[in-house]
Amino acid sequence: MARLAHTVTVAALDRGWFEEAADALVDLLDASREGPGGTVVLADGRAVEGLRLLKGRHLRPGARYGEVPAAREGAGKAGTGAEAADGPAALVSGTGDSPAVPQAVVLRAWRPSHSVEVESLVVEEGMSLKLGLRLSGPRRPRAVELSLAGHQPGGGSLYRFSGRGKADLAAWWAAVDRLPTAPPAARPPASGRAVHRLAKARLTLTPRPAEDGSWRITVALSVRGRWLLRPVGAVVLFFARGPLERGLQEAAESAAAEWNTALAELTPLHGEALRAEIADALVNPDGPKAL
């Protein structure tokens, strides 16, 4: 088994602002409706960019959402046969020529006071991926759960993998509210596992406050071989430890830099100003203002 760890420093996220923003986002989406052509329209009449209802009823279990590019949308409406195959049905069924785009985002549950669950189906470079997300307490998020399953059709068990992860946000806030001199949380608030026929891995994130108010997050990764390949896996991991350590460090540092950049660009708005800013971001994600 290989055990690796790296610690990064990131800017702290204000819990009150985060929960206020989450509540505003849920309110905006909960008040939205289906518009012409399956568009999702906010209460003020503006359409959410890149989100279109392909099947089912808006904000009801089983509703399928996706994005239909303008050129394909026209072909799907005006053409028949091969041209029509590039329309919305192609996005749901997985046909057509659109690589690296979600085939469908399926809403499994929309209960703003309890939980929200979505499932994304993606086909990319010959791999079929199913990603699941469950958010507990959407208005004041308590936990985030992720699941991933992938396979290559006809590729056998070597081309299958799965993973699950969970972030206990209540435990996270408790960990970063401790004194800087206090020991880190005994149990990582965020963790994930990935399983393949040949190996399995576990990733954990353990935060603690720094003296200057920022967060110090320790990213730990453990990898081990499975079944009869454990001895062989141990040898491979021994020689691959250097590249694995560099890869973990680079990934952690890159993620920390992106986090810090994003937080530096956040506008510290509240109330109606924050709500309006989120609505503008939904309608025009590439607009001049950052959320």
What order do the helices and strands come in, and which of them pair?
Elements lengths: L1 E9 L4 H16 L2 E2 L4 E3 L5 E9 L8 E3 L3 H9 L9 H6 L8 E10 L3 E10 L2 E10 L6 E9 L8 E9 H8 L13 E7 L2 E11 L5 E11 L4 H36 L5 H13 L8
Helix pairs in contact: 1-6
Key phrases:
13 strands; 291 residues; 13-stranded antiparallel β-sheet; alpha+beta; 6 helices
How would you describe what is shown here?
The chain has one domain. The protein has a 13-stranded antiparallel sheet with strand order 1-13-12-11-10-9-8-7-6-5-4-3-2. With 291 residues, it is of the alpha+beta class. It has helices at residues 15-30, 70-78, 88-93, 169-176, 230-265, 271-283, and strands spanning 2-10, 33-34, 39-41, 47-55, 64-66, 102-111, 115-124, 127-136, 143-151, 160-168, 190-196, 199-209, 215-225. The chain is globular and about 55 Å long. 30% of the residues lie in helices and 35% in strands.
Estimate the global geometry from the Cα principal axes: globular
> N-to-C SSE series?
EHEEEEHHEEEEEHEEEHH
User: Strand count, sense and closure of the main sheet?
Assistant: 13 strands, antiparallel
The average pLDDT value, as a whole number, equals: 84
Characterize the quaternary organization of these chains. Answer: single chain
The proportion of residues in beta strands is 35-45%
The span between the termini is 42 Å
Low-confidence stretches: 70-102
- Computed over alpha carbons, the radius of gyration is 22 Å
Could you give the count of β-strands? 13
Strand order in space, largest sheet: 1-13-12-11-10-9-8-7-6-5-4-3-2
**How many separate domains?**
1
Helical content band: 25-40%
Backbone structural class: alpha+beta
Q: Count of helices?
A: 6
